[in-house]
Amino acid sequence: MTRPLTGIRIVEFAGMGPGPFAGMMLADMGADIIRIDRAGAETSIRDANPQLRGRRSIVLDLKSERGLDITRRLIDRADALIEGHRPGVMERLGLGPDACIARNPRLVYGRMTGWGQQGPLAQAAGHDLNYLAITGVLHAIGRKGQKPTPPLNIIGDYGGGGPFLAFGILAALFQAKASGQGQVVDAAIIDGVSSMATTLHWMTQTGMWNETRGDNAYDSGDPFFDCYETSDAKYVSIATIEPKFYAELRARIGLDGPEWDHRSRETWPRQRAMLEAIFKGKSRAEWCDLLEGTDCCFAPVLTPEEARSHPHNVARGMFAEGGGLTYPVPAPKMSRMGLGGVPPPPVAGADSAAILRELGIDAG
Q1: Using DSSP, how many helices (H) and how many strands (E) does the chain show?
Q2: Theoretical Cys-Cys bridge with 114: which of 126, 174, 187, 283, CB 3.0 to 4.6 Å?
Q3: DSSP state of 237
C-alpha cells in the first residue's frame, strides 16, 4: 500500500543520534530520503544501525566544487532537508538556509542541535545528559538521597530531539504545500525536552511536586509506582496510581490490613518495606501468572532480548527480522499502510551512480 509520505523528497546530511532518528521516522512513512555520506568516512558498526534504514546513500566531498554542485542540485529538487551540524557549519559550506531557500523557496530546512541555533551555549559541545540537566528534567530523575540518574539517552536524543524535528518538518511541509513558502525548523533538544516537561513545570509551581528527588508520585517516592525485586533476582513494576487500581492490587496480593487503608507520604516508607518483602516472596514468573493482564498496572521488567519475545509484543508485531537481527518495526501502525519488514540500512555510497543518473550527471 502507498505510505503517507510517498512522493516527499528529503535530503539528509549524515549525522548521529536524533537527526537520523527523525529521518528514520520519515522514511518509515514513505519519504524518499537521500542521505549524503561524507567522502573518506571510516566504515564502522554504526553503519549497520537500523536507524539508517529506508534511505538511499550517495557519498560526496563537500569540500570540493563538484560535491557542492551535486548537493545543491539535490536540494533544488527536495521538499525538505535535515542537517545536524553545529550552528554556522552549513553556512560556511554555502549550504545554509538562506542560500538553499533562495534557490528552492518551498524548501523546509530542518536543523537538529542540542542547544539550538541561538543562545550563549549554541556553539558549545554537549550530549543528551547535558540537555536534560539544563532543562530541570535530570534533577527529578533518581532516588531520594542519591545523585541524579542518567536515563539512557532516550529522553533527549530520541524523545525531545528526533521526533520534534520530524513533527516540525511535517508541519512546515503542510504549510509549504498551501503557501509555496518553506521555512527553517530549529529543532533543539532542550526545547523538545522542555516541552515534554510541561506538566512537571506546572506541578512544581502549584505545590503538587516536591523538588526533593525521590519524594513524589512518579520519581520512586510512591511505593506503588516503583520496581521490586523477586525471589529469582529479577524485577517487576507496579504503577497503581488511581484508587480503583490500588484496590485491585490490594485484593490480588492480600493487602487487607488497616495499614493499607491510606496512602500518604507518612505511610510510604513502611508500605515500601512491606512491599519489598511481599514481592521477594515469589518469582517473576509467579507474579506474572498472578498479576499480568489485570488492572493492577503491572508488568515484568524485561531485558531487551526478553522484550523481543514477549507474547504481547509478538502479537503486536513490534519486531521484525532484518540482516540476521531483530529490530523494532516502524511506529505508529496505520490502517491503510502495510509496513512489512525492516529494510537494511544502505551501504555508504551504494546509490551514488543511480542518484547521479537521476540528476543527469556522469557518474565517472
Answers
A1: 14, 11
A2: 126
A3: E
Beta strand 80-83 with 108-113 is parallel
User: How sure is the predictor about 44, in pLDDT bands with cuts at 50, 70 and 90?
Assistant: low
**pTM for this predicted structure:** 0.94
Three-state DSSP class for residue 251: helix
Alpha helices in the chain (DSSP H): 18-28, 65-76, 89-92, 97-103, 128-134, 162-179, 189-196, 198-205, 243-253, 268-279, 284-291, 304-309, 311-315, 352-358
> How large is the average pLDDT for residues 73-91?
97
Cell numbers 503486536 correspond to 316
User: Contact 213/146 with Cβ under 8 angstroms?
Assistant: yes
What are 345's three cell numbers? 540500512
Q: In a 3-state reduction of DSSP, which class is residue 111?
A: strand
CB 25 within 8 A of CB 5: no
Of the candidates 75, 88, 76, 84, the one whose C-alpha atom is nearest the C-alpha of residue 22 is 84
Q: What is the DSSP letter of 333?
A: -
Cell numbers that stand for 201 in this block: 513545570
Sort strands 9-13 and 183-188 into parallel, antiparallel or unpaired: unpaired
- Candidates 37, 79, 157, 219; catalytic one: 157
The cell for 107 is: 524548501
- Dihedrals phi, psi of 357, to nearest 5 degrees: -60, -40
The CA distance from 345 to 50, in Å, is: 6
Residue 127 a catalytic site member: yes
Q: Give the count of alpha carbons within 13 A of 147, CB side only.
A: 2
Band (pLDDT 50/70/90 cuts) for residue 12 is: very high
pLDDT tens digits along 311-350: 999 999 999 887 778 889 999 988 888 656 677 888 888 9
Closest CA to 147 of 225, 213, 96, 101: 213
Residue 284 has pLDDT above 60, yes or no: yes
Given the residues 76, 127, 261, 289, select the one marked as catalytic.
Answer: 127
